[in-house]
Amino acid sequence: MLAKDVAFVISGLDGIPVDVEADVNQGLFAFEIVGLPDAAVKESRERVRSAIKNSGKKFPNHRITVNLAPAEIKKEGSMLDLAIAVALVKSAGELGDADIGRAAYLGELSLDGRIRPVNGILPMLISAKQKGYKEVIVPSENAKEAAYLDGITIKTAGTLKDVLDYLCGIGELQTVETISYDNISDKDDYKNDLKYVKGQYLARRALEIAVSGNHNIIMVGPPGAGKTMLAKCIPSVMPSMSFEEALETTKIHSVAGKLSREEGIVSRRPFVTPHHTASSVSLIGGGSNAKPGLISLAHNGVLFLDEMPEYSRSMLESLRQPLEDRVITVSRVRQNVSYPAGFMLVGSMNPCPCGYYGSKTGKCTCSPTQIARYKSRISGPLMDRVDIRITVDAVKYDELTAAGEEESSETVRKRVESARKIQRERFAEDGISTNAEMGEKELRKYCRLSPECNEILRRSFVSLNLSARARARIIKVARTIADLDYSADIRPAHLLEAISYRSDEF
Fold first, then answer.
1. C-alpha span between 258 and 120 (Å, rounded)
2. Is the CB of residue 354 less than 8 Å from the CB of residue 365?
3. Which of 63, 99, 211, 303 is the most exposed place for a label (fewest CB within 10 A)?
4. pLDDT digits (tens, 9 = 90+) for 366-401
5. Where are the extended beta strands (E) located within 249-402?
């Protein structure tokens, strides 16, 4: 007897429907799974067999063939277990006239019949909704993740027996109640706040501009100047994520297996800090399953590289393409997968190996050759993709011990939100949301320069030996400064400040 139902697998960030066909025929016992399964799918034979027996159903002692279609797509992971078990029980005649085709099934099975959670539930559910499926059964532990999607009936189950009873009409499954993203509170409980940062007014200003326009920024200064502390304050001034941004970010974290089961959604912008010993593969993604890397996990948030020259050259150079295109493509033998990589790069570094070149608080012991070699660890093409470069000097003692608090992150965040709102309205029809994402088309449309501004930029282009990319990035930063100033036009003061953030000391 042939039985058929539907499951989903993950390809990149997309859910791919898989027709699960089970056929039980007379003959010597054999259990074959065909349709390009990986090792985890092949192992489902034993999980399914034990789960069916421990759910009170008879496992057919005949020739069993399970086909996963379409056959040209490689099936990876354990999320097909539940669909295979349901189709097999139906094929064995254990479900009578139950309509197993009325739902899609997602979940991994334990030997005792319990349904375990799986990664990538959200992208699979989104795909199911887009393709017109009306009902999907998911593991109970994936309920929170599924709760943010409306327009489709999602039911949860704890065991295979619960699912089989439901299909036979002798039991019910709990329906997931939709949670509104608007009800998620964005509490101001960040550990790091700008009000605790003494002095560093230039750095604070530069960070505000960087966050407002989503610009890449690098801070250079001696040890103890506060570079790391400033960077860790960035999440507290970043604007709230829209529901669309949260869904996109959650999909990435879900596929990577980094999503909290309790929260079910990524509601705060990520702040990812790779260790300097991390490999290029861990950064850009890959492995046998082409999983997203750290730069994709930082999508819609921040990638912070502390002490940038300590990272390997290959790792740093792998950032060039995603910084330009805001997407990373992971190529493997059987597939090419593209993941979003729209992150804000924040870097920090010392001016030299000992850290005190040009510092007023310490004496540099490095030779010119050592300093040049140290700076050369960050290539010119990579540095050219950084919009803002600032020097962070050591804080004076009087500033450090001054009474009172500095301007809080909450105050800065309000200005950032206002600037981001201006940008969202400006780019409403352009498919982008921040100034940093502007291409040549948007620059010509929204960043027309007056003759005076053009002359300032021309002189800077020659004197600073700027590239065409650097010129464009200066204009983008100037546009952000103008937005913070609620100015419709880029004025000379805005342009001069933007130019000042491309120090020739780097």
1. 10
2. yes
3. 99
4. 999 999 999 899 998 999 999 999 999 888 777 777
5. 271-272, 285-286, 291-292, 302-305, 327-331, 336-340, 344-349, 388-391
For residues 283 and 274, the answer to whether their CB atoms sit within 8 Å is: yes
What are the angstrom distances between the C-alpha of 177 and each of 83, 122, 154, 317, 427?
23, 15, 8, 45, 34
Query: Residue 330 is which amino acid?
Result: V
C-alpha span between 462 and 466 (Å, rounded): 7
Question: Which pair of tokens denotes residue 154?
Answer: 């999602």
Q: How far apart are CA 222 and CA 336, in angstroms?
A: 42
Q: Report the SS3 class of residue 24.
A: strand
d(CA 379, CA 261): 40
Tokens 């030779």 found at: 367
Q: Whose CA is closest to 280, among 218, 230, 214, 330?
A: 330
Domains identified in the chain and CATH numbers:
2-175 (3.30.230.10), 194-434 (3.40.50.300), 438-506 (no CATH)
Tokens of 334: 């059987």
Paired strand residues for 349: 220
Q: Which pair of structure tokens corresponds to residue 3?
A: 């039985």
For 21-66, how does the pLDDT look when each residue is reduced to its tens digit (9 = 90+)?
A: 999 988 888 999 999 898 889 999 999 999 999 999 999 888 999 9
